[in-house]
Design a protein that fits this description.
Elements (H helix, E strand, L loop, with lengths): L4 E5 L9 H14 L6 H7 L4 H9 L8 H13 L11 H10 L2 E6 L4 H11 L5 E5 L12 H10 L6 E5 L2 H10 L2 E5 L6 H6 L4 E3 L2 H6 L13
Parallel strand pairs: 1-2, 1-4, 2-3, 4-5, 5-6
Helix pairs in contact: 1-2, 1-4
């Protein structure tokens, strides 16, 4: 049996402190297009891919011809932050610590292209990141299991030998559907109860706490199989 194990990480709200930037820039994109969407609703939708986020907030009955303009507006607004995206304390250190213990590190994120490149620069741990399953690589984003499954494929491990760390209910649902161990962090602003209901097996304050508990948490436990 292979001894390989994969540590799969969401990025926005998990490794990089960007959720509220997404809230504001999506809110502004909707405002510019004439839509009144409460910020609290935008916050709950962060973590979905652009198409799914728009459908979740505006409904299937909307005119989808406006989706491209909304996504372009959000991207342009969010891109103004690319050179100063703030990684959470301990993010890069956690990835390096896990890699040093033999874990294969893969990212699973709805970000792609220049946005993903900016996020990876913020994390500053490309030397230990094998790759990323991004929005460019799957047909269905979270909460579908596709991004997590694709990340596992990159690492070459079955679901029982992978741990996924994320911050949204969409992350937890995707992880649960793929059968990997689901770990949630509260740094994205989603309540603990919601994360647990969505499938989180363990909840930490942030990645710094995950790092502090490497010797006693899920990363110290034996693989499921």
């Amino acid at each position: 049996m292979s001894t390989e194990r994969a540590a799969i990480f969401d990025v926005d709200g998990t490794l990089v402190d960007t959720n509220h930037l997404h809230v504001v820039t999506w809110w502004e994109a909707f405002r510019q297009a004439g839509h009144r969407v409460p910020m609290r609703e935008v916050h709950r939708a962060v973590g979905l891919g652009g198409d799914d986020l728009i459908e979740h907030l505006l409904g299937k009955e909307r005119d989808p011809e406006g989706d491209g303009q909304l996504k372009a507006a959000h991207h342009a607004l969010y891109a103004t932050y690319f050179d100063r995206l703030p990684a959470f304390e301990g993010a890069g250190e956690l990835l390096r610590a896990l890699a040093g213990r033999g874990w294969t590190i893969v990212l699973a994120t709805s970000a792609g292209g220049a946005e993903l490149s900016a996020l990876r620069r913020a994390i500053d741990a490309d030397d230990v990141i094998l790759g990323a399953a991004s929005a460019d690589d799957v047909s269905s984003g979270k909460p579908a299991p596709d991004p997590v499954a694709r990340a596992r494929e990159l690492a070459g491990v079955p679901s029982g030998r992978a741990v996924f760390v994320g911050d949204t209910v969409w992350d937890m649902e995707a992880a649960a559907r793929d059968g990997v161990t689901a770990v949630a962090v509260l740094s994205g602003g989603i309540p603990r109860a919601d994360l647990e209901e969505a499938g989180a097996e363990v909840v930490h304050r942030d990645v710094a706490e995950v790092l502090a508990r490497l010797d006693t948490g899920v990363f110290a436990e034996p693989a499921r199989g």
